Every structure is written in C-alpha cells, then in structure tokens.
C-alpha cells in the first residue's frame, strides 16, 4: 500500500489482527527486514510496517533529515493512516533511535517499547563518527571531472575503507551526518514506558554495551542478550527474539 506523507510517496503494509504494533527499520534498510518476525507476531497483533524516507519504496526527501525529521514523518504517517492507539513500537538500529527521540518529544506514544540492537549511543563512536563525517565530505570533493559512475564507485570505496558500507545510501549522505551527530542517551533517561532492549553479543555495529547504557539510563527497561547473534538478530534468531517480544508484550 502507498500513502503520501508530507509530499513523499510512502510504502507501508498492515497485517494480522489485535493490538497495533508499529515496526521501524534501521538505516539503509527497509520494512522487509521484519518479514520473519512479522509472520509470527501477526498471529496476535496488527503489524504496521513502513519504509522510512529515502529507503525501500518510500521517496527520498529533498532536504537532509535529522532524527526529529524522521520522528515527525512517522507521527504524520500514523495520524494520516489513523493508527492512534499504538500498543507497541518496535525499532531496529536507527529505528530505535527514532523511537527514543519520538517518545522524548511526545510525538510518538505507545504502551510498550521494544528496541532491537538500537543505535543512538554516539559517545563511544566519536572517532568513527568523525571519520564518517570527514569521508562523507571528502568523498564529494575530488574526481569531479570523472564520469558519474566512476565517481560513485570511488566514493563507495572511500566509505567502505572505514567500515561504513551499510551507510552508503545514494542521496542520503547529509541525512546520515545529521543522524549520527545526535546522542540519544539523555533522551532515553526521560522514558518511563516499559522497554525491552535486545542485543546480540556478536554485534559490532551496536554492541551489547549500548544496551547496558540504555538499561542503566532508562527507568523501566530490561535487557536481553542473544548469544551468537549479530546486528540483524531479528532475522538470524527470529524464534528466540520473537519469544522475548511475545513474553514482554504479554507481561
């Protein structure tokens, strides 16, 4: 299904029945990341998924989006589609960042929060973040006389040299710089909603230390660690993660 939100054609899906659960994907991803998880959860819940601006089947915004811009977009989507009684928000990686900021700004509401490998802890990534910014800027400067396809190839190589290949999304570089400039830990400390944090102990993108920091900061959060799981634990360990989510939602 499609709907126009703030001038952007937006792709979304609705499945299942029961209390409404909204899923937000991470950076460079799309709502299809939740396909396996949705299959199980939709037996007891109405699952709402959408592609965020610039990803999947949703149009790219003309201006650079920061975290609050993504929050406002999601809030407008929920308002226009009339999903105003949200039982739970589930966010993976940057989707978790959006949820945290949205709750702090009172733009998003839900009874229970689930953060899967949530990003947003920037203090531990100061050096890497600086490299991301520098590379995103530097990758645009040279090679202007080369053919476009060659420029794109070299630009992507520059990103990959600092391990940021997941963040190479054409036209979203400035948005990425804005998103990684904001730390969520202070915002998280203001959240009182029951929150489930799930992290994989082999995740190098958003390590378990992020989950521990969020747990220490938040007033009503529990942390679950999935042994052997990486960043996309909801795909590789679907049954384990789904059981954690179901138990949390029923508690």
What would the keywords be for this entry?
251 residues; alpha/beta; Rossmann fold; 8-stranded mixed β-sheet; 10 helices; 8 strands; 39% helix; 19% strand
Explain this structure:
- With 251 residues, the protein is α/β, with parallel strands linked by helices.
- It folds into two domains: 2-122 and 182-250, Rossmann fold (3-Layer(aba) Sandwich); 125-175.
- It has ten helices and eight strands.
- It has helices spanning 35-41, 67-80, 94-104, 126-138, 148-161, 173-179, 185-188, 208-217, 233-236, 238-250, and strands spanning 2-5, 8-16, 20-24, 46-50, 86-92, 112-116, 195-200, 221-226.
- An eight-stranded mixed beta sheet has the order 1-2-4-3-5-6-7-8, sandwiched between helices.
- Strand 5 (86-92), helix 3 (94-104) and strand 6 form a beta-alpha-beta unit.
- The longest helix has 14 residues, at 67-80.
- Residues 159-166 have low confidence and may be disordered.
How are the SSEs placed, and which strands pair?
Blueprint: E1 2-5, E2 8-16, E3 20-24, H1 35-41, E4 46-50, H2 67-80, E5 86-92, H3 94-104, E6 112-116, H4 126-138, H5 148-161, H6 173-179, H7 185-188, E7 195-200, H8 208-217, E8 221-226, H9 233-236, H10 238-250
Parallel strand pairs: 3-4, 3-5, 5-6, 6-7, 7-8
Antiparallel strand pairs: 1-2, 2-4
Helix pairs in contact: 1-10, 2-3
Gist of the model:
With 251 residues, the chain is of the alpha/beta class.
């Amino acid at each position: 299904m499609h709907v126009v939100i703030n001038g952007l054609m937006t792709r979304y899906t609705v499945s299942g029945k029961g209390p409404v659960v909204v899923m937000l994907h991470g950076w460079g991803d799309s709502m299809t990341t939740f396909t396996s998880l949705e299959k199980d959860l939709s037996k007891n819940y109405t699952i709402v998924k959408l592609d965020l601006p610039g990803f999947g089947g949703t149009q790219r915004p003309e201006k650079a989006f920061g975290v609050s811009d993504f929050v406002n977009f999601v809030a407008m989507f929920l308002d226009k589609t009339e999903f105003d009684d949200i039982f739970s928000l589930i966010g993976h990686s940057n989707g978790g960042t959006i949820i945290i900021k949205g709750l702090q700004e009172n733009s998003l509401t839900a009874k229970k929060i689930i953060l899967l490998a949530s990003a947003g802890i920037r203090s531990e990534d100061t050096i890497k973040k600086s490299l991301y910014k520098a590379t995103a800027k530097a990758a645009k400067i040279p090679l202007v006389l080369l053919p476009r396809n060659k420029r794109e190839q070299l630009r992507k190589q520059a990103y990959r040299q600092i391990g940021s290949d997941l963040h190479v999304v054409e036209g979203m570089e400035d948005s990425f710089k804005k998103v990684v400039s904001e730390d969520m830990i202070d915002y998280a400390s203001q959240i009182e909603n029951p929150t489930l944090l799930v992290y994989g102990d082999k995740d190098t993108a958003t390590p378990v230390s992020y989950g521990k920091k969020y747990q220490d900061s938040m007033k009503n959060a529990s942390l679950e660690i999935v042994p052997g799981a990486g960043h996309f634990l909801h795909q590789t360990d679907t049954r384990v993660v789904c059981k954690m989510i179901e138990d949390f939602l029923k508690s």
